[in-house]
């Protein structure tokens, strides 16, 4: 079976999942299914592989196409119930039955009026929970993530190995968003944090020392392909647990020097922000800037 779909494989395991969907729908081993790379000469007018919709949209379209093939092969399966896939296909071929099919799917019942706050903006919702433990260095502003535990709702996972990897990857992307990556501009609008020397990304050493990810069991989603759920982007915000853990650590450090009131910590929680929030005798020597007494060198949006 040669399979073409409208999704773009960029390392997220979409091709593997689509082979699994076709395998289950047709009732044949995955080894008998091969992917033809996405191209408009095979599947034109595709939607974007974005917003974690790749598996949902293309998986349902594949099921639609597989059902059409199964309907055409039904007489041959009934006539030869002990036969195999190759037997039914061979007989159908010589009977001049079309063995190619296209499937189509669009998300149903999506219509939302923002002015009236009426309708349904999403097909379903994904849920997750995370807890992180961090350690900060009050003198340098550096921090380490000691442990993170995540439970993610992905419905009935199509491929747990892929989904766990997606959760881990999205979480680390969110880690960069909340702690490291900071676009800085000059007052004239020039980007100062240009390139890897000034704009840092999460690396191997930023991964939590203990990283536990589990998929929620017993939560099927009847509104998507084989009761699964999207998993690409939903886990990203779970990395906010690191940001808030850092804030809790700063609050504990401030309490040790008698500061118990409210303090502001903007995201991302960079080393500079952590250091300055950990108020001590050194930071007290830095006077508060007064309007009109200085010229800003940067603008942080």
Automatic annotation (TrEMBL):
Pfam families xrefs: MoCoBD_2
Identification of the protein by name: Aldehyde oxidase/xanthine dehydrogenase second molybdopterin binding domain-containing protein
InterPro entries the record matches: Ald_Oxase/xanthine_DH-like, AldOxase/xan_DH_MoCoBD2, AldOxase/xan_DH_Mopterin-bd_sf
Gene3D superfamilies cross-referenced by the UniProt entry: Aldehyde oxidase/xanthine dehydrogenase, molybdopterin binding domain (3.30.365.10)
Domain called Aldehyde oxidase/xanthine dehydrogenase second molybdopterin binding: residue spans: 1-208
PANTHER family noted in UniProt: XANTHINE DEHYDROGENASE
Species: Cuerna arida
Molecular-function GO term, any one: iron ion binding
């Amino acid at each position: 079976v040669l399979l073409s779909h409208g999704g773009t494989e960029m390392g997220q395991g979409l091709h593997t999942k689509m082979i699994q969907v076709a395998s289950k729908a047709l009732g044949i081993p995955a080894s008998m299914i091969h992917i033809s790379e996405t191209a408009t000469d095979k599947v034109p007018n595709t939607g974007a592989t974005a917003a974690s919709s790749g598996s949902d949209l293309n998986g349902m379209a594949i099921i639609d196409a597989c059902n059409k093939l199964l309907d055409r092969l039904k007489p041959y399966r009934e006539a030869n119930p002990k036969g195999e896939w190759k037997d039914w296909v061979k007989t159908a071929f010589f009977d001049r039955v079309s063995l190619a099919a296209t499937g189509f799917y669009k998300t149903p019942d999506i219509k939302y009026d923002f002015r009236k706050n009426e309708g349904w903006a999403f097909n379903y919702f994904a849920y997750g929970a995370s807890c992180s433990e961090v350690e900060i260095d009050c003198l340098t502003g550096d921090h380490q993530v000691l442990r993170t535990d995540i439970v993610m709702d992905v419905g009935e996972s199509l491929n747990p190995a892929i989904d766990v990897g997606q959760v881990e990857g999205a979480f680390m992307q969110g880690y960069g968003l909340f702690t490291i990556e900071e676009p800085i501009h000059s007052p004239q609008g020039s980007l100062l944090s240009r390139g890897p020397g000034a704009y840092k990304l999460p690396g191997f050493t930023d991964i939590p020392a203990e990283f536990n990810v589990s998929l929620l069991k017993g939560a099927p989603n009847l509104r998507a392909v084989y009761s699964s759920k999207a998993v690409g982007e939903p886990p990203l915000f779970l990395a906010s647990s690191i940001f808030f853990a850092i804030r809790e650590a700063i609050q504990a450090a401030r309490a040790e020097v008698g500061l118990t009131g409210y303090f502001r910590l903007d995201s991302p929680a960079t080393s500079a922000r952590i250091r300055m929030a950990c108020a001590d005798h050194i930071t007290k020597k830095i006077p508060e800037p007064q309007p009109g007494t200085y010229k800003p060198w940067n603008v942080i949006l």
